Amino acid sequence: MHLGRYCYAAALFFRCSVPEEGMPRNMMSFFTQRAGLYITAAVFLFVLVVSAVLMSVAQDAHALRMTMKRVIFEGAKRTEILSIVNNTAKEQVFRLGWRVMRMTEDGSLGYVEEGESMEGLMLAQDMIRYSPRRVVLSPGSSQQIRLMLRRPKDLAKGEYRSHFWIQPEEEAVKFTPDDSAPKPKSPKVKITMLTGMTLPVFIRNGDLSVSVSITDAKVVSDAGRTKVAMTLNREGGRSTYGSMQFYCAGSDEMLHEVKGIAVYTEVTKRRVAFKVPSPEKGGVAACSQVRIKYVAEGNDSQFKGAVMAEAVTGG
């Protein structure tokens, strides 16, 4: 991205905005006008830069695809294979590794940096070997990644989790300015966004169980949009993962489904809110109440696709 061109455009904006008749007699008025112009141009430049970066992120977000969303080692399972696919039109180099991430009660995930507290977390990464560690993929090609569990004999009962991280590697490229472009005095900057993907990897050791309940379920208005808000409460030795399903109370016709909702072991509750599309007539408000179901995936060893928790708004 040629940041210098935007600076040059902003400079032209300054020049064109100065009155042709010269400096006003009221010096304070003059400097106030100039300050306003500088602020306006600065905001204009900032919006251009942010827009360019967001467009770059949107394009890179589809550069990598993984065939799995999560990996669980439990029972006698010792190996797993996932595939990564290069969706770009050029050769890509990917690096693989581990990240430690913590969930908060609002459902967000943040990186735990080295030296930060690990309270509530038990890590899986030291018990799992993977290969290869670096992958070169031609356009459209794929590569299998093999994960192998080495479970210690004296491993304490519990659920262990780390996040497997795959990120494209890009070598430094010499930036050559466009000689045909105007010659601004400001430096030119090239911004490159490298985006990757992570997936959680679990090791469940021992007979683990979990129970879930839904409380504080209600229909709320958020910025003009109707949402269903609630708190997911978790008790037990393992995390949960499943889909939120919404129905008008008394009806079996599902209004909406949101997949991939997890509550990890470092939190006992997660507060969530989802926009639920309106029924064909009358909107969500036409439902006297909304029934909510938190449904496990079919491969869940405890629930096997069953409803983990259920509630009704206002109930």
CATH fold call of the largest domain: Immunoglobulin-like
Uncertain parts = 1-25, 45-61
- Beta percentage is 35-45%
Radius of gyration, CA atoms, in whole angstroms:
27 Å
**How would you state the average pLDDT, rounded?**
80
Assembly type: single chain
Can you count the beta strands?
18
Question: Helical proportion?
Answer: 10-25%
Q: What is the first-to-last residue Cα distance? A: 54 Å
For the biggest sheet, the summary is: 5 strands, mixed
H/E order of the elements? HHEEEEEEEEEEEEEEEEEE
CATH class of the largest domain: Mainly Beta
Shape: globular
So, the CATH homologous superfamily of the largest domain? Immunoglobulins
> How many distinct helices?
2
Query: CATH architecture of the largest domain, please?
Result: Sandwich
Instruction: Give the tally of structural domains.
Output: 3
In spatial order, strands of the major sheet run 2-11-10-4-8
Please characterize this protein's 3D structure.
The chain is an alpha+beta fold and 315 residues long. Helix content is 16%, strand content 41%. The protein has helices at 3-17, 27-60; strands at residues 64-66, 71-74, 79-86, 92-99, 101-103, 109-111, 128-131, 134-137, 142-149, 158-169, 197-205, 210-222, 225-236, 240-248, 254-263, 269-275, 290-296, 307-312. The strands form five sheets. It has a five-stranded mixed beta sheet with strand order 2-11-10-4-8, with no helix packed on it. The chain has a four-stranded antiparallel beta sheet with strand order 1-3-9-7, with no helix packed on it. The chain has a four-stranded antiparallel beta sheet with strand order 15-14-17-18, with no helix packed on it. α1 (3-17) runs antiparallel to α2. The longest helix has 34 residues, at 27-60. The protein starts with a helix and ends with a strand. The model is unreliable at 1-25 and 45-61 (pLDDT under 50).
